[in-house]
Amino acid sequence: MSDEHPPQPKAFPVSWDQFHRDARALAWRLSGQGEWEAIVCITRGGLVPAAIVARELGIRVIETVGVASYHEYKEQGSLVVLKGVDPKITALGGGEGKGVLIIDDLVDTGSTARIVREMLPKAHFATVYAKPKGRPLVDTFITEVSQDTWIYFPWDMGLTFQPPISKGTLG
Ligand SMILES: O=P(O)(O)OC[C@H]1O[C@H](OP(=O)(O)OP(=O)(O)O)[C@H](O)[C@@H]1O
Ligand SMILES: Nc1nc2[nH]cnc2c(=O)[nH]1
Ligand SMILES: [Mg+2]
């Protein structure tokens, strides 16, 4: 979590099963909305839903775009594009990305989505989860969570011992 994403009071942990179901639901929703020539996934979180959507929709041209918080590399603040989109993909749809599907795991403040949308203004932007601030940036998503919720993805988690309820601090 960064300054832009201060600690959130609510937690929304997502298991692999649930993520697979939600990503597949996203593919179902997208399947009724057109034909896609290529997927551009936003690394790293977009890699997993992109694989699932690509499998379901039979899309075999997959490109990545890498965006990271600048503070991970230097100072706090804005986002930095670590890897842009291949010009062959940018050229699709007359250079504006029509027919391209952009995939990410979630949209939160919308900062990442805004940068990638500028690269491919006519592409369709899809995420599995969306928070209210970022929602206007997304064309299709599956589940909305509140702005004060932090989503925990299965690739960031591991199995840990849970103390019995009777030994816990609550109750
Ligand atoms: O709407 P925003 O406020 O921009 O936040 C959303 C972005 O944040 C997360 O990626 P992160 O930059 O943490 O990198 P990662 O995908 O490599 O985990 C997430 O995967 C989205 O790409
Ligand atoms: N894992 C995770 N990364 C994020 N990046 C921005 N918001 C979130 C979130 O809720 N969960
Ligand atoms: Mg990401």
Automatic annotation (TrEMBL):
Cofactor(s) in the UniProt record: Mg(2+)
Residues that bind 5-phospho-alpha-D-ribose 1-diphosphate: R44, G45, D104, D105, L106, V107, D108, T109, G110, S111, T112
Catalytic EC class: transferase
Annotated residues for binding of GMP: D108, T109, G110, S111, T112, W150, I151
Annotated keywords: Cell membrane, Glycosyltransferase, Magnesium, Membrane, Metal-binding, Purine salvage, Transferase
NCBIfam families hit by this protein: PRK09177.1
The protein, known as: Xanthine-guanine phosphoribosyltransferase
Organism encoding this protein: Methylobrevis pamukkalensis
Classification lineage: Bacteria, Pseudomonadati, Pseudomonadota, Alphaproteobacteria, Hyphomicrobiales
